[in-house]
Design brief:
Strand content: 15-25%
Largest sheet: 8 strands, mixed
Strand order of the largest sheet: 1-9-8-2-3-5-4-7
Shape: globular
Radius of gyration: 21 Å
Number of helices: 7
Oligomer: single chain
Distance between the termini: 32 Å
Structural class: alpha/beta
Helix content: 10-25%
Number of domains: 2
CATH superfamily of the largest domain: Vaccinia Virus protein VP39
CATH class of the largest domain: Alpha Beta
CATH architecture of the largest domain: 3-Layer(aba) Sandwich
Length: 323
């Protein structure tokens, strides 16, 4: 039954559509549900009574776990308030892995601490042998001088050339704050947030299901990375926007046939196991301690292009071709 939904955004209520998805048939599920904060969605009432909202959430969370494969993972994004309730539901039917804290500051609300992060609950269907890959992100550098921000002291000789392993606190992925980059949707996530989640929990050809597809962010990330997707979305206009955007995407987010996540002028996420292949296409400072002021750069003929700055250092002028 799931085959008729593959690589499509299906309009309809997720609880009804879930009935067509067999048990243990999806590699990962990801949900970014309405926050019940009176946001202006086109087709959803975002102001339910507390118990009504929680009862509804418990239903779709249960369905997410049901359709996920034994080797698969379940991800749920929301504000901390609701994640505490979601965790009580998930703890009974799945296995806790991480609470990912996504650094995304908002405006001060007064008489309370300033909200500064969203959360992503990361659970697995089974306690044994879930699919998971360690991932890396680039070293943080000063924009003016290119030096590493972090002082590694006497440990620079052991630095990974690309960057550190990702922890459960993500500070390098930012919210979409400017309207010119947003769709007509009140709660749009950055695509490279979903690409990171997909890279660390799936392989090429795996199936990613999002029961609150919105304007297609999860589906776009999956398609770019060579994964299959299934999206459920209640609103007809959001489905139309998603289909229009997906028609312009190709599964080509690669460097030397390795799937990676690109943003602006470089790679923002890669799997640790893929570095051995990717590294063959980069000049790496020798000795490695020189990485403090000399970042890695691609060799001639790679899919990235580089040119020197005025001060003689090298700066990424990404020429990644998306067509």
């Amino acid at each position: 039954m799931i085959k008729k939904y593959l690589n499509q955004i299906i309009q309809g209520d997720c609880l009804r559509l879930f009935r067509d998805i067999p048990d243990n048939s999806v590699d990962i599920t990801f949900a970014d549900p309405p926050f019940n904060l009176k946001k202006k969605y086109n087709s959803t009432k975002d102001s339910l009574a507390l118990q009504e909202y929680l009862d509804w959430c418990q239903q779709w969370i249960g369905e997410m776990v049901r359709v996920t494969k034994p080797t698969g993972s379940i991800f749920v994004h929301n504000i901390p308030k609701w994640l505490t309730y979601y965790a009580t539901f998930l703890n009974k039917i799945a296995y806790f892995k991480h609470w990912i804290s996504w650094d995304a500051p908002t405006s001060p609300m007064g008489k309370t601490l300033q909200p500064a992060h969203y959360g992503v609950l990361f659970y697995t269907k089974s306690p044994e042998h879930p699919k998971f890959y360690e991932i890396r992100y680039p070293h943080k550098r000063c924009r003016k001088c290119d030096y590493l921000y972090k002082d590694y002291g006497g440990k620079k000789a052991g630095l990974h050339p690309f960057g550190p392993l990702v922890s459960d606190v993500w500070t390098d992925i930012h919210r979409i704050k400017h309207d010119k980059y947003r769709d007509e949707h009140p709660c749009q996530l950055p695509i490279h947030l979903l690409e990171r989640i997909i890279l660390m929990s799936t392989d090429e050809g795996d199936i990613v299901l999002d029961p609150f597809s919105g304007t297609g962010t999860t589906a776009i990330a999956a398609k770019r990375l060579g994964r299959k997707y299934v999206g459920f979305e209640l609103d007809e206009e959001y489905v139309r926007i998603s289909e229009s955007k997906l028609s312009q995407e190709e599964p080509n987010s690669k460097i030397c046939d390795v799937w990676v996540s690109f943003f602006l002028n470089g790679i923002v996420t890669l799997r640790d196991i893929d570095w051995a292949e990717i590294s063959q296409h980069y000049f790496i400072p020798e000795p490695i301690e020189d990485i403090d002021f000399a970042p890695i750069v691609p060799k001639n003929g790679s899919s990235n292009g580089y040119a020197p700055k005025k001060n003689g250092r090298l700066k990424n002028l990404l020429l990644f071709n998306e067509t």
